[in-house]
Write a structure and sequence with these properties.
The chain is of the alpha/beta class. The chain is 40% helix and 18% strand. Helix 1 links the parallel strand 1 and strand 2.
Length: 256
């Protein structure tokens, strides 16, 4: 007698060797292969913008010294061959390239993989109805913030800036409106008294991997209980400015 079939998962993510890679490394190390089958991964450009625009964005946030530290770390990761694509190849998982998840040809290609669920991990664009409806159980997102209060970009930063005691990692259903789908599970990641954004982001990615494995198991078993959001309490945050960094430092935190 055989057990239930493994839940089939397709990932959509962005090319980030510093932080998002941490989630995938933790996920691949822990996930039960007899219960979860990863059928493909699509990796898009970070922020879905030209590389120069990303460089300017990161430089404006971290400043010259912090930016140089990140570049050195990035070079080290590249020399080590550490990337989401490399992790996927090591696992024997197909890479499914696309410039946009909303491209009709991509939607049709993903449908051929017959995923039960599509998981967004820092995917850089809004999913439209065609891709949202492609998998049998819909699309879910891993968001490093408590919803609906910390919708938008870099939620880890904004929770630290607000003086929260924890970063709340959330796995939620995806809807046409950004970060507005029902919550499927949460996990807290403590923020220390004098902490760094760098450390908390890495810790939150590892917590996100553990939470995702749990939620996928509950989805497969039909045990997940979605909790709707009260959007009257919603806020939306964009990319931080230097003034926001100064406030973070005033609270005793740092970026790196």
């Amino acid at each position: 007698m055989t057990g239930p079939a493994a839940i089939r998962v397709h990932f959509v993510t962005e090319d980030d060797p510093l932080y998002v890679t941490e989630l995938f490394a933790a996920f691949f190390e822990r996930y039960p292969r007899d219960e979860i089958e990863v059928v493909g991964i699509s990796i898009q450009k970070a922020f879905n913008e030209p590389r120069l625009a990303t460089v300017r964005r990161v430089l404006s946030l971290y400043g010259p010294r912090g930016f140089a530290q990140l570049v050195l770390r990035l070079v080290g990761r590249r020399l080590q061959g550490r990337s989401i694509a490399r992790l996927a190849r090591d696992e024997g998982i197909a890479l499914v390239p696309t410039r946009s998840v909303n491209d009709p040809s991509f939607v049709e290609r993903v449908k051929l993989l017959e995923p039960d669920v599509i998981v967004s991990v820092a995917a850089p664009e809004i999913f439209k109805p065609a891709i949202l409806e492609a998998p049998r159980l819909g699309c879910i997102n891993v968001h490093s913030g408590r919803l609906p209060k910390y919708r938008g970009m870099m939620p880890t930063f904004w929770q630290m800036r607000a003086g929260e005691p924890n970063v709340t990692v959330t796995v939620h259903e995806m809807a046409e409106k950004l970060d507005a789908g029902a919550v499927l599970g949460t996990a807290d990641c403590p923020i220390e008294k004098h902490d760094s954004l760098d450390r908390v982001m890495v810790a939150a990615k590892h917590e996100g991997a553990r939470l995702l494995i749990r939620v996928l198991g509950e989805l497969a078993a039909g045990e997940v209980r979605p909790q709707g959001l009260d959007m009257s309490e919603a806020s939306y945050f964009s990319f931080p400015r230097r003034a926001d960094v100064l406030e973070l430092r005033r609270l005793g935190h740092r970026l790196i």
